[in-house]
Each structure stands twice: as structure tokens, then as C-alpha cells.
Write a structure and sequence with these properties.
single chain, 401 residues, alpha/beta, Aspartate Aminotransferase, domain 1, Aspartate Aminotransferase, domain 2, 2 domains, four-stranded mixed sheet, 17% strand, globular, binds pyridoxal-5'-phosphate
């Protein structure tokens, strides 16, 4: 059956408005569309394809597991899930892992766990969840309400309650909002969707101290920042602030859907049998792929490579900006970078993204003012150089109007 982009409009619910070209094949950081046009991929499936497209190690583990065992449900466990959980615990602060299928589901589990823990150890009125303006945690009704953009949760009727929002990086405001009623703080240790905002390390440390003071749990949403993206296995390791609960997804599966919630023994014990679950969570195919992703990524030379590639991006983007004067700042960490537009180009991030696509470069935006790059962590330097040459042409075309 021949399908095209216009078939999409005929048969898909209109909540997305994808690019006009339809990708059909990918290899490393290159992608080809139905017409055979070749693109360089700086979008990485929105910070997912951490080893690029069709990485041989991931293809081989998927084929291997595909010939063994696909699915069981949680009525039975399976070896890939147990091994992945063990490796995640060994590599982080965590003692226990819960598997889900997406970032939103991992966060949903984290929020439910925090509420249940407060009821188990404190009282029913300890239900306040504080999150941050411009934060993003997923699209289930609980997580989207915890997210800091009301436009995403408005218009669906009554919202889950007990949720409040504080300004990111504003410790004084957070201190004034917290009390013994505070159940948990949910935050991204680097805001992604909200505009690639790196918090002040003193702020992150202060959040931890306030949580300790008020017996509140600290939940780090590392769905976008985790699994090597910032040059550390998880961003919390860079700021040296340990959360009580951490969520991961996106890069964890390298393109295969999986999410995970990590926590300590003491907190995990509140998710007693029957309290929460998912048919697919811990699916052997997903866990086998994620295990291999973790094996490949969790290596000092991969993290060192991420920081080197960041320097290359920054150097070339700086040179582009000297020529065209479009950015106020290049920010972010590792392979999660944002070019913040200056006042002259305010609100026009989408124009740059569309122009880049015309130059056969896939990239992202983070809000109206930031062009975002979230490529593979092992993108070859020549693809960075070629991709940024295409980006420069896109910038030139927007500047020329
Ligand atoms: C920080 C963060 N949390 C949660 C999510 C939601 O993840 P998913 O789309 O897999 O549900 C995202 C997705 O962009 C994210 O960036």
C-alpha cells in the first residue's frame, strides 16, 4: 500500500503536525525520506536515539531477543528485566526499579509512590506536590498537571489537585511554599522542553536541603537529561545532589519504548503488591535493548566523547553567531544544547527549524525562542560539521528573510 504525508491527514487524529517529508530509513545520524533525500539528524527522536539509528549492537540484541521471548506480562518476570534493574541499581543511588513504557508513565509511578509514601509514613494531608514553571513531565493527566505549562493541562475538565508551581531557580520562593504539607518536589535537573535551562547548582542543593527539612521526597525527572546525555550517566551525578526517586525513559531504550522509576528500598516498600502496574512494563524486548544501551553508554570514553562533541558544537555555533548575530546564548550540557534567540528573532525558533529542514537537517525547538539539538551521543564529528554547515545555510536564509 502506498502511503504519503497527505494520507496522515486522512487517517490520523490531528494532535500532531509532522514535517512534510516521511522518513523511511536511518543509519547512524543520517536519515532518508520517501524521495531518497538524505538528512542529518540533530533531533535524535527528541533525545531518544542515543546511539543513532539502527546501531548494530541494538539491532543484534533486538533480533536475538526477538527469537527468544517477546512478552509475558508481570504475572511472570524475565531475565532481561532483572538484569537491567540490577545494572541500573549498580550504576546509581537506587536499590529498586519499576519499569514502565514511557517517561510519562515513569513519572506517574513516581508521583503515585510519593503520595502513597506520605500516607504510609506521615498523614493524608501531606499531599502537596510542588513542580516548576516551564517544567515538562509527560501527558497523562497527573503528569501534565504537574508540568509547568497550564496550556497543556487546560481544557480537560477538573485537574488532579494538590499541585503547585514555583519559579525554577528561585529557592526563596520554594522555601516560602514548602511546609510539613509538602509531599514531594518534582524537577528536571536540566529543563528540556522548557528551553534548555541549566539550574544554578546552589539552587539544586538548596532544593535537596528543603526536602530534607520538610520530610518531602525529591523526584528528579531525568527522562530527557539521563543516560549519558549531559556527559554523565545521569545529570544528578554532575550536580552531586541525590534524589529520592529518579525517572528515566527516552535514551534508556535508544528508540525502543521503555521507562523506569528508580528509588531506595525504604521508599519502594510503599508500592506493595497490587498498588500499581502495567501490562507491558518490564517487557523482555524493551529490557534487552535497554540493557545493551546501558552497557554501551555507561563507559568513561563515551562520556568524554559527549563533552568533546559539545565543545565542537559550541565552537561552530559560536562562529555562526559571530557572523549572523542571532543567538543571545548557547546553553545546555553535552548533547542537549539550546541556541536561545536574541530579541531581534524572539519567537521565531520554528522558522529556523523549518529552514533547517529545508537544508536537510533535522533539529528541534524548546519553546518559541530556543532551537534545540539532541543528537546521538556517538554522532561522528563529520556529521556535526556537515550538519552545522547546513544549519548555517538555514540561519542565513532566515536572516535574509
Ligand atoms: C523531562 C521529561 N519528562 C517526561 C517526558 C515525557 O516522556 P514520554 O513522552 O516518553 O511520556 C518528557 C518528554 O519530552 C520529558 O522531556
Amino acid at each position: 500500500m502506498q502511503v504519503t504525508r497527505s494520507t496522515f491527514d486522512d487517517v490520523m487524529v490531528p494532535n500532531y503536525n509532522p514535517a512534510q517529508m516521511v522518513p523511511v530509513r536511518g543509519e547512524g545520524s543520517r536519515v532518508w525520506d520517501q524521495e531518497g533525500n538524505e538528512y542529518i539528524d540533530f533531533a535524535g527522536g527528541i533525545a531518544v536515539n542515543v546511539l543513532g539509528h539502527c546501531h548494530p549492537e541494538l539491532v543484534s540484541v533486538l533480533q536475538e531477543q526477538g527469537n527468544k521471548l517477546w512478552h509475558l506480562s508481570n504475572v511472570f518476570t524475565n531475565e532481561p528485566a532483572i538484569r537491567l534493574a540490577k545494572k541500573l541499581c549498580d550504576a546509581t543511588f537506587a536499590d529498586k526499579v519499576y519499569f514502565a513504557n514511557s517517561g510519562a508513565e515513569a513519572n506517574e509511578a513516581a508521583l503515585k509512590l510519593a503520595r502513597r509514601f506520605a500516607i504510609d509514613h506521615h498523614n493524608e494531608s501531606k499531599d502537596q506536590i510542588i513542580a516548576f514553571k516551564q517544567g515538562f513531565h509527560g501527558r497523562t493527566f497527573f503528569t501534565v498537571t504537574v508540568g509547568g505549562q497550564p496550556a497543556y493541562s487546560d481544557g480537560f475538565g477538573p485537574k488532579p489537585g494538590g499541585i503547585e508551581h514555583c519559579e525554577y531557580n528561585n529557592l526563596e520562593m520554594l522555601a516560602s511554599m514548602m511546609s510539613e504539607r509538602t509531599c514531594a518536589i518534582m524537577m528536571e535537573p536540566l529543563q528540556g522542553e522548557g528551553g534548555i535551562i541549566v539550574p544554578d547548582p546552589a539552587f539544586v542543593r538548596g532544593v535537596r536541603e528543603l526536602c530534607d527539612k520538610h520530610n518531602a521526597l525529591l523526584i528528579f525527572d531525568e527522562v530527557q537529561s539521563g543516560v549519558g546525555r549531559t556527559g554523565y550517566l545521569f545529570a544528578y551525578m554532575d550536580v552531586d545532589v541525590t534524589p529520592d526517586i529518579l525517572t528515566s525513559a527516552k535514551s534508556l531504550g535508544g528508540g525502543f519504548p521503555i521507562g523506569a522509576m528508580l528509588t531506595t528500598d525504604a521508599i519502594a516498600s510503599s508500592l506493595k503488591p497490587g498498588t500499581h502496574g502495567s501490562t507491558y512494563g518490564g517487557n523482555p524486548l524493551a529490557c534487552a535493548v535497554a540493557e545493551r544501551v546501558l552497557d554501551v553508554i555507561n563507559q568513561p570514553e563515551v562520556f568524554a566523547g559527549v563533552l568533546k562533541k559539545e565543545a565542537l558544537y559550541r565552537e561552530i555555533l559560536g562562529a555562526i553567531n559571530e557572523k549572523y548575530h542571532v543567538f543571545s546564548e548557547i546553553r545546555g550540557k553535552g548533547m542537549l544544547l539550546g541556541c536561545a534567540l536574541n530579541e531581534k528573532y524572539a519567537g521565531r525558533a520554528r522558522d529556523f527549524m523549518v529552514a533547517a529542514n529545508e537544508q536537510r537537517l533535522m533539529c528541534l525547538i524548546a519553546g518559541m525562542n530556543v532551537i534545540r539539538f539532541a543528537p546521538s551521543l556517538v554522532i561522528p564529528d563529520e556529521d556535526i560539521i556537515e550538519g552545522l554547515a547546513r544549519f548555517e545555510k538555514a540561519v542565513a536564509s532566515v536572516v535574509a528573510g
